[in-house]
Amino acid sequence: MDLQLLFENDEKTTALFIAEEEALLTVRFSGAVEHESYKAILEKLYKAITVYKCRKIVYNLKDLTYTDMQSRTWYATNFLPRIIKTFGLVFRTAIIQSTNEDENLSVEFLTKVGSNLGFKDSIRSFKTWEEAIHWLSLKDNIPAGSKK
């Protein structure tokens, strides 16, 4: 898989990658991510979904150590509803779990929020990149309306 960097913030706590052949976008969070950086990378993800029409997303949280409550609230009350309103529910999202248990609890909560908004069977958490990519590549997991 050929991942190309689309954006990385100056602090190197957030980055956005694309694998165009697989119609896959990856957001990487590392270390302690401040609210403005959190919002900025997700806004870039939103724009990339619009431009590249990707419907498979990986959130790589493996090296994430901290996000604040304000960021998680913004994700649940602003970002997810806007994604659904604009693009619908034709996504598959794989989350690579953080080594930080507090962050994993937050992700669990946000996954439940996403499920309640309609992403019932399209969000899964994994321990490794390989597991996440394998799940996303399964034929049954390719969202309708995506490139692949």
From TrEMBL:
Annotated protein name in UniProt: STAS/SEC14 domain-containing protein
Organism of this sequence: Rhodocytophaga aerolata
